[in-house]
Amino acid sequence: MTEVFIQILKTISGWAIPVLLVLIPAVGFFKKVKVYEVFVEGAKEGFEIAVRIIPFLVAILMAIAMFRASGAMDIFVSFVSPLTNFIGMPAEVLPAALMRPLSGSGSLGIITELINTHGADSFIGKLASTIYGSTETTFYVLAVYFGSVAIKKTRHAVPAGLIADAAGILAAVFICRFMFG
Amino acid sequence: MLNYVWFALVAIAFITAIFTGKMPDIGTAAVSGAETAVNISLGLIGIMALWLGIMKIAEEAGLIKLLARIIKPVTKRLFPEIPPDHPAMGAMLLNLAANWLGLSNAATPLGLKAMEELQSLNKSNDTASNSQVLFLAMNTASITIIPATIIGVRVAAGSKDPFSIIATSLFASTCATIVAVLVAKLLGRLPVFHKTDPNNPPAKQTKGKE
Question: Which entry of A49, B95, B99, B103 is 20 to 30 Å from B138 by CA?
Fold first, then answer.
């Protein structure tokens, strides 16, 4: 059963991109779109956008890197841990959950360590994996997406993104306790 | 809002460093954070050019509009500001679909294309529209059917059942997405944020605080 599942997933992730890369130009070709010329025209924007997001990303990643290096996260964890104990989240997972919206590579590092220490099939390992798999690096997305269109006043995007992250983490704790706990 | 969050991160780092004696570390971290940002951005050039090229073909071939028309019943309610068969809809659907499949390399360029389309409907050039905030919130909560990265880590760690977390991730990310939509919609109605809505007809102002 697992074997079949692995095979299906591997096939999907192996085929999805090549299929799109041939399917879209094929439709274009039959609709008499000048596929090569149009591709190049679109691709031109790629460089521009990548350069446009640099200042936004520098600002965000600089602040987050400083925050991480100062050790403030550990202090914050000790403040919040009574609350997370109450909802049934093991204290070991808390730093990973708090790091998730700030830094993709940072949280992946913490989670990989948790999985290696406690085992991938332990409750902690599964909960940490679920948290990683179900949320995004909010501040990275914020910087890159708004940066690409030069939006500086983000209005309610930060609270909305963070509340959604919190909801995702709570839901992960709930479902993992229900299924694995 | 980002002004406060950004300054808070830097200020908290500084104050903490006084007590933890990590002052030199935060200096180094700031510099290497900036370097990482540039590396990430420059690393995006190739993949961005590739997908934006493909997207342009899809647009010219009418595929994006076709997609937009298919999901019209849902998007009409979520994004009332956007004309139902605007290319922004198609681009957003492609981005979300790439997220569902865990194709994060493709998702970013497609998402940025969607942001660009949304920006073309935004009256302000520096303040986010309601649609942009909602799309962003949905993206940070992104539903994932195949969380490929973490499955890879689990396989590497010798898990007997690396895929057991697919169902739980799907559940948690679906909850997060529902909350994201609700919160983005509700917060948008709060006076503080409603006032700064660049597409709010009576007060057509763009000099909002946040």
Answer: A49
Mutual angle of helices A35-52 and A2-30, in 10-degree steps: 120
CA distances, B52 to each of B26, B58, B112, B113 (Å)? 37, 10, 9, 7
Residue B66: list chain A partners with CB under 8 A: none
Q: What is the ipTM of this complex?
A: 0.86
Cβ <8 Å between B154 and A115: yes
- Please identify among residues 136-165 of chain A the ones whose CB lies closer than 8 Å to any CB of chain B: 136-138, 141-142, 144-146, 148-161, 163-165
Burial class (CB in 10 A: 0-12, 13-18, 19+), B116: middle
What is the distance between the terminal CA atoms of chain B, rounded to a whole angstrom? 5
Coil, helix or strand at residue B175: helix
- Judge: A132–B62 Cβ closer than 8 Å, yes or no: no
Treating both helix axes as pointing N-terminal to C-terminal, what angle do B87-100 and B130-140 enclose, rounded to 10 degrees? 10
Domain boundaries along the sequence of chain B:
1-48, 62-195
CA distances, A30 to each of A24, B55, B67 (Å): 10, 16, 18
Q: How far apart are CA A154 and CA B130, in angstroms?
A: 10
Q: Which residue has the tokens 């200096």?
A: B27
Structure tokens at B89: 């809809």
Domain positions in chain A are 2-50, 54-180
Angstrom distance (rounded) from CA B208 to CA B192: 9
SS3 B147: coil
Tens digit of each residue's pLDDT (9 = 90 or more) over B37-85 = 999 888 888 888 998 899 899 989 988 888 888 888 888 888 988 887 8
Separation CA B44–CA B105 (nearest Å):
9
